[in-house]
Design brief:
Helix content of chain B: 25-40%
Largest interface: A-B, 67 and 50 residues
Number of helices of chain A: 15
CATH superfamily of the largest domain in chain B: DD-peptidase/beta-lactamase superfamily
Low-confidence stretches of chain A: none
CATH architecture of the largest domain in chain B: 3-Layer(aba) Sandwich
Structural class of chain A: mainly alpha
Structural class of chain B: alpha+beta
Number of strands of chain B: 27
Strand order of the largest sheet of chain B: 16-15-27-26-23
CATH class of the largest domain in chain B: Alpha Beta
Shape of chain B: elongated
Number of strands of chain A: 2
CATH topology of the largest domain in chain B: Beta-lactamase
Strand content of chain B: 15-25%
Distance between the termini of chain B: 117 Å
Distance between the termini of chain A: 36 Å
Helix content of chain A: 55-70%
Number of domains of chain B: 4
Strand content of chain A: under 5%
Largest sheet of chain B: 5 strands, antiparallel
Mean pLDDT of chain A: 87
Order of helices and strands of chain A: HHHHEEHHHHHHHHHHH
Radius of gyration of chain B: 37 Å
Shape of chain A: globular
Oligomer: heterodimer
Strand order of the largest sheet of chain A: 1-2
């Protein structure tokens, strides 16, 4: 009882978690309004069903002690991986193929959930759990296990296929490893290799003959159309480049202050922007509220991410620290990729804008992260907790 | 720096957090700046324009082509004020049913649509599509029934429209592909350049020229469909997502009744009464002097011309541009293909209006079309019809007759229809009152199988003979030569010239007078008036020798030969005169003065040149436009006393019993001209002509490259007459007529000209 009261007192004490929650709520409200611009029915559902549900789940996440969460992390990881395996099993019951992907599970009589969203949360927790007391990852070979932890869910998710979600794992892993004190030269070397690999893939996509292509045809076309659009070449605007071109057009048309709700509805509707209420919601935001609105949204993301990092910084618990960093990185990466593809900086892929896009699973998953961050931020550090991830000056923390 | 940071932030973890935060801020800065790049400045303006353009649909509003009127204000050509039934292109292609089914399926499964894969969606669409297919089928059946045409013709029309739009699309893609390849400096695949064209969003005519009853029926269907749509919308609002469309007439919302651009020629077929009492006796007897009622077909069509589908050249000459030139050509347009329709294309065409529909508000910005201007011709369509009728072979004048020449000289098989041309010119104004080309354009063949007309080498009915065919003029040039010789003082006004039977002493069989040829008797000492009356070749050969060929050619040029008259007809021939700067062939010596050798003129050139004689030396270019000659013309400074003698010679030629244009030799010398109240001054001509041969091969440019058998041969028969009503100070009208490969000028063309004089009188001229 005393412990519960202490938890409650901790939660109510002002901390960066509250700031993160405020930012998340504001982003969610903006999302509901933006969705309402183009799909009022979906906005109602988001505001009246998914957002309350996500908040309830978030509240549940406030309750367990971080230690308890750490204990159940690996079983949860196993459970999630099993579900991901189930998703890719041919003919698995309750697994519909939606837009060519088996990313969903139908819960009869209830809802349709996307396990990869939960996998994002569990992956961060598992990574944090693994890294919390180790220093093995400060060697190159020691990075192997964290990468394996990433690759298993990534491969399963890619198999669905859901490239957008899979893309989030690697940057998150890098961020967590950076925070955990992995040697930067190792990480930058790996990053350089990854960048080189991406460059090779893009080069092959652009210039190699069809027989040498690695990517699937639709992925090749997306890259080619993105490069073409960036060069002012409009040949793909009617097909592969249509979605990106429309998004850029609507963003550009929004100007400094946007069209306002009524006119933006008309403009977006008649421009026939695909997925305007979920993946492409950023275009709707800029069209409605303009550049100022876009910067406001980016500002909120910065507030959200920085407050989560602050929570990490204030925490002494290595598991909580790395979990917070992981969540911040996951949310930030997702938002950056989504906005980047709107702006013609990245090819189009199926990925939502956190807190804003329509979708129950995505919203619940991100609010789970917020709930966990608030949970971690509200815990008082143990009196004798040892410094974590201070590899170059172990005493510094006590100075 | 690093040490300072370490001092400031001793915790490695916190420094790493700062590093992450810095990277994140950097990324956000890039994203923020890129958003700003798109949303401000030129990029913003361009994209705003593009985004807002999606709210607009634009379509042209057809204009009305100008009327063509005759000199008395009768409408010779106009756009038909009827109605056409137009149907949306998607319905024509069959895509409409699928699209409707797709929309309905999506609406009905709105909540789950985004989560379905393609197969699931297509299954739902397939369930709904048959009812829309049935509607489309019903539409075509109803249109066939109310339009009273076979269903196959509807299908053929649909296929034609689809083919045409696809061709337009292919052309557009081809141009876009070339443009993109030029911009990108690399080859562009066809698939990358494909883009939909406006025509795919338009409605196209399935039934043209529908009557009031049909129009009423179709309007009824459309009205019922609109009412059904209103009821359906109400039901949709009430039933929400569970709504299933029950519309049975929805397809009729894609149908419209539009005013078409059918070009009509109301006077193209006329019933004409041809008097026969003034015909040569044998013909008069055949008709028992009773007026003959007959249908003149294709009246004035050679002159008025026809419309055709546009060519690439039209689009290049005047491309459509919605801001700069809405009168420019768009795919599917029609343009004047020949005659006045072609020459006055830019005047008649008009400028389209433009309608911009704001999809969000339904508001329409309309720029009204500017109708084409009317063109008033100098033609009298009633006179034209009369002449066309009297030149019908069934009357007998344009038919080879036994009395056209002696049996041994006969050049065409008796009874064979003859081709030719006639022009009537108002001398005062230079305006063409009538210009007839024979044979007529066969209307039915023209509309159903025009190609066959162009392949008819024997009759060449497509030729607008008065203007585009140059004939050697024969003796009809002699009055011009005499007028020039008098003016140049190469012969005195009363000078007597001793005319032997032949020109060149050592060649008595080469260049001789017709009377010498027949009787070996020379004309002897004669003056210019006699030379015209009796048409002495040797006299005019001597005139040419006195003047020199180059000077004579210069005079011909003054009379308008050697260049198009600018009458206002497409493809007008310039005729032919000697190149005065080039060498002179011995064979050309002396022949030019009698209308042989290097000289040829069109009927209109001949009429215009002879009008100069009546106009006291004033050259006025002929025109087919009413009032088209204001302020034009030039004085040739011809000797007025010489002109008096020339006209006297022509008068005697037509009225003196010894005149070559006076009588029909084989019909008991009955006079050629028998109209009361007028004085006729005429000159006949019998011009040797190259035979008409069949073309068996054309070169790559479409010019004849190889000839086969002879189709027609013989002499062209000419008469050019100046007609002066009693009481008039000088002739008021000139009539020129040529009959191809027909023989003696006076015998063949003379009676035609005589009938034209009667026709003029019947139409109120020559009073």
């Amino acid at each position: 009882m005393n412990q519960a009261l202490a938890s409650l007192r901790g939660i109510l004490t002002p901390n960066p978690g509250w700031v993160a929650l405020a930012a998340a709520l504001l982003l969610s409200l903006i999302g509901v309004m933006a969705i309402g611009t183009v799909e009022p029915g979906y906005a109602d559902k988001q505001g009246e069903l998914w957002l309350p549900a996500a908040l309830i789940v978030m509240l549940v996440c406030l309750l367990p002690h971080p230690r308890m969460i750490g204990l159940v992390t690996y079983p949860m990881l196993v459970g999630v991986l099993l579900v991901l395996v189930y998703l890719i099993m041919p003919g698995a019951p309750l697994v519909p193929r939606v837009n060519g992907a088996t990313s969903w599970i139908d819960i009869p009589g209830a809802m349709r959930v996307q396990p990869s969203e939960l996998a994002k949360v569990v992956f961060v927790l598992a990574l944090a759990r693994y890294l919390r007391f180790r220093d093995s990852y400060r060697t190159l070979i020691g990075l192997l296990v964290p990468f394996v932890i990433m690759f298993i869910p990534v491969m399963l998710i890619l198999k669905q296929p859901d490239l957008g979600t899979a893309l989030l794992f690697a940057p998150t892993l890098f961020a967590v490893l950076v925070a955990a004190g992995a040697k930067l030269r190792h990480l930058f070397s790996l990053l350089g290799l990854a960048a080189a690999a991406v460059a090779v893939v893009v080069a092959i996509c652009l210039w190699a003959p069809p027989s040498m292509q690695i990517l699937k045809p639709h992925q090749q076309k997306r890259i080619v159309s993105m490069v073409s659009l960036a060069q002012g070449d409009t040949r793909y605007v009617q097909d592969e480049g249509f979605q990106q071109d429309k998004a850029m057009t609507l963003i550009g048309a929004g100007g400094l202050t946007g069209y306002g709700a009524e006119q933006a509805t008309v403009i977006v509707t008649y421009n026939k922007l695909p997925h305007d209420h979920n993946d492409m919601i950023y275009a709707v935001i800029v069209n409605r509220w303009g550049l100022l609105g876009a910067w406001a949204v980016m500002g909120l993301y910065i507030v959200l991410v920085v407050s989560i990092l602050l929570a990490a910084g204030r925490s002494r618990d290595p598991f909580a620290r790395l979990s917070c960093v992981g969540f911040a990185a996951m949310i930030f990466t997702q938002a950056s990729i989504n906005i980047g593809m709107h702006l013609g900086l990245l090819p189009i892929t199926g990925i939502t804008l956190p807190f804003i896009s329509y979708g129950g699973s995505s919203l619940v998953a991100t609010f789970i992260m917020i709930g966990l961050v608030m949970n971690f931020a509200s815990r008082r550090p143990a009196l004798l907790s040892r410094p974590s991830f201070e590899f170059d000056n172990a005493d510094a923390i006590f100075q | 720096m690093r040490k300072a940071l370490r001092r400031q932030v001793p915790s490695m973890f916190h420094r790493r957090l700062l590093l992450l935060a810095a990277v994140m801020l950097l990324v956000v800065a890039v994203l923020g700046l890129q958003t700003a790049r798109l949303a401000v400045g030129e990029e913003h303006r361009e994209r705003r324009l593009r985004a807002e353009n999606a709210l607009l649909t634009e379509r042209p509003i057809p204009t009305v082509r100008g009327h063509i009127l005759d000199r008395k204000g009768r409408v010779l050509a106009h756009d038909e004020p009827g109605f056409a039934v137009v149907v949306d292109y998607d319905v024509i292609t069959g895509d409409w049913a699928y699209n409707q089914a797709y929309r309905e399926a999506k609406r009905a499964h709105r909540e789950t649509w985004g989560e379905m894969d393609r197969t699931e969606r297509e299954a739902l669409v397939a369930e709904l599509q048959p009812k829309y297919d049935e509607q489309a089928e019903m539409l075509w059946s109803v249109l066939a029934e109310v339009g009273a045409i076979e269903r196959e013709r509807i299908e053929a029309r649909r296929a034609t429209i689809i083919r045409r739009v696809q061709q337009i699309g292919a052309g557009h893609t081809r141009r876009r592909q070339a443009r993109m390849a030029a911009d990108l400096e690399e080859p562009v695949a066809w698939a990358d350049a494909v883009e939909s064209v406006q025509e795919e969003t338009w409605k196209h005519a399935i039934l043209g020229d529908v009557g009031d009853a049909t129009r009423g029926l179709i309007a009824g269907f459309i009205a019922e469909a609109e009412a059904e749509e209103v009821r359906e919308t109400q039901r949709r609002l009430e039933e929400g997502g569970d709504y299933v469309s029950q519309q049975a007439l929805k397809v009729w919302l894609e149908v419209e009744l539009l005013r078409p651009k059918q070009r009509r020629y109301p006077f193209e077929t006329q019933t004409v009464v041809v008097p026969t009492d003034s015909l040569p006796s044998v013909l008069r007897d055949r008709f028992e002097a009773q007026p003959r009622e007959m249908a003149a077909e294709g009246v004035g069509l050679h002159l008025l011309g026809l419309m055709r589908d546009i060519w690439a050249e039209d689009e290049s000459r005047r491309p459509f541009h919605k801001a700069r030139d809405r009168g420019g050509y768009l795919a599917g347009d029609r343009a004047g293909g020949s005659g006045v329709e072609a020459v006055f294309e830019d005047v008649l065409r008009g400028v389209r209006g433009w309608q911009v529909t704001h999809l969000d508000t339904g508001a329409k910005d309309i720029t009204a079309p500017v109708p084409g201007q009317d063109v008033t011709l100098s033609i009298d369509i009633a006179l034209q019809a009369r002449i066309q009728a009297l030149m019908d072979p069934s009357i007998g004048l344009m038919q080879s007759q036994p009395w056209h020449s002696r049996e041994e000289d006969h050049q065409a098989k008796v009874g064979q229809p003859l081709n030719g041309a006639a022009v009537v010119l108002d001398i005062e104004t230079g305006e063409v009152l009538a210009a007839v080309s024979k044979p007529d354009l066969p209307l039915r063949e023209l509309r159903e199988n025009a190609r066959s007309i162009y392949q008819n080498q024997y009759d060449q009915p497509f030729l607008n003979r008065p203007f585009v065919v140059a004939y050697q003029p024969g003796s009809t040039v002699k009055p011009l030569v005499l007028a020039a010789a008098y003016t140049d003082r190469k012969i005195g006004l009363d000078e007597i010239v001793d005319v032997r039977g032949y020109l060149w002493p050592n060649k008595p069989t080469v260049y001789r007078d017709w009377i010498f040829k027949q009787t070996l008797t020379p004309f002897g000492p004669i003056d210019g008036v006699f030379a015209i009356k009796r048409s002495s070749n040797v006299f005019f050969g001597m005139m040419q020798q006195r003047m020199g060929l180059k000077r004579l050619t210069w005079w011909y040029e003054q009379f308008g030969l050697g260049r198009p008259t600018g009458v206002g007809v497409k493809g007008e021939s310039s005729g032919r005169v000697l190149d005065r700067t080039g060498p002179i062939l011995p064979a050309d010596e002396a022949f030019t003065a009698i209308g042989q050798g290097p000289i040829a003129w069109t009927v209109i050139q001949g009429a215009a040149a002879h009008a100069v004689l009546a106009r006291e030396g004033w050259y006025l270019p002929p025109t087919i436009v009413r009032g088209g000659n204001a302020g034009r013309g030039r004085d040739l400074n011809l000797s007025s006393r010489g002109l008096t003698r020339v006209l006297e010679g022509m008068r005697l030629s037509a009225s003196d019993s010894l005149g070559t244009t006076h009588h029909l030799s084989m019909l008991n010398r009955e006079p050629i001209f028998n109209a009361e109240g007028v004085t006729v001054m005429a000159k006949s001509g019998t011009a040797q002509a190259a035979p008409l041969k069949e073309v068996v091969r054309y070169d790559e440019q479409g010019y004849p490259a190889e000839w086969g058998r002879v189709l027609r041969s013989g002499d062209h028969a000419w008469v050019i007459a100046l007609v002066q009503p009693d009481g008039a100070r000088r002739p008021t009208h000139v009539i020129a007529c040529v009959v191809e490969y027909a023989g003696s000028g006076g015998q063949v063309a003379g009676p035609v000209v005589n009938q034209i004089i009667h026709a003029l009188q019947d139409e109120g001229y020559l009073e």
